[in-house]
C-alpha cells in the first residue's frame, strides 16, 4: 500500500484563481500556473497533475502493460463491463484497485480517442465523491489503454436498490470488508439522502468547479459506487465531454442541423435507457441539463425503490399528475423502508418528490442547476443525516 501511495505526492500551497485550460496529451506547463495542468517529467513513469482549487500536485503513475497484467492478475476477475471497456479487480501490494481496460474494436481510432478523452477528463478532477485516478497505461501500438482507479468495495447504488439477494455482491466483498448493509437489506432513508446529496455535489463539481466544465453524460445508479460507509463515488467518464454550457441551444432542431457543424456542447453523448434526457434524444443537443434529468431519475429510484427502466420507463409510470399528488406519492414510496429505519418525514418526501419532478421537466431551461439541487437538499434534510464525504 505504501508503494502505491508513494506514487501520489501532494504539494499544498495557496489556492490560485481558476482559469479554464484544456489538458492536452503530452502537454507541459509552468509550475507556477494556477490552472489544472500536466507535465510529463518522464513519460515512461509519471504524470504530474496540478489541481487548481487547492494547488495540489499529484504524481499519477504510468504503468507498463506487464505491470497492468500483474496488477489485474491477468484479468481474471471482471467487476464491470461497458461498450468499449471492461473493469477488472486488481491488487497492488495487497491494496485493491480497479483496472479499466479499453479494448481494441473495429474502430481503433475511436477507441484511442475515447481513451485519451476519458484520461484527459479524469486528470481534471479531484473530488471525494468521484472515483480517483491512480495511474494509467497507454500503448498506441497495442491500440489499448488502461486506467488504474480507486477500488470502491460495496457495489453500486443499482445493486443496493434493486437486487434481492447478495449473489452479485461476491465480487466486491469476498476478499474485503463490506458494509453491514447488504444488497438484500433496503437502504434506510437517511442513507438514500446522503447518497443523493453527495452525488449532487459531485455533479455540481463537474458542472461548475472543474477548470473546464464537464458533462458526465451517463449518470445512472449503476455508475454510482458505494464504499464501506455507503458514501458514493461517481464513476465511468467514458461518455463525458468538456466545455459545455449550462443551457441548450433552442435555435436548431435535429432535422435542420448540419451535424458536422455542431459545437462540442451539441455533439451526441452516450446514455442509458431510463436515464437519457428526452430533449437530447429529440434534438441531439447536449448540455448540463442532461445530467440534471438523469439525477432526477435517480432521485425517483431512491424514493420508490423502482428501476429506471424495467419494461417501462419509471418516468412514464410516475407521471406529472402522480408526482403532484401527495397521497399517491406516499403510496409509491419504497415499502422496504418500513423495515429499515422507517418511512421519510412527510415534508422530506414532498420536497424530494418536487425536486425530482423539476429535474425531469420536458423543457431543460426550466430544470434547476446542480448548485440549486445541492442547496435544496441541504435545506430539506437534517444536517446530521448528511455526510459530506
From TrEMBL:
One of its GO terms (cellular component) is plasma membrane. The keyword Lipoprotein does not apply. This is Protein kinase domain-containing protein. The keyword Membrane does not apply. Residues 73-389 form the Protein kinase domain. It comes from Stephania yunnanensis. PROSITE patterns: PROTEIN_KINASE_ATP, PROTEIN_KINASE_DOM, PROTEIN_KINASE_ST. ATP binds at residue 100. Keywords: ATP-binding, Kinase, Nucleotide-binding, Serine/threonine-protein kinase, Transferase. The lineage of its organism: Eukaryota, Viridiplantae, Streptophyta, Embryophyta, Tracheophyta. Belongs to the protein kinase superfamily. GO terms for molecular function: ATP binding; protein serine/threonine kinase activity.
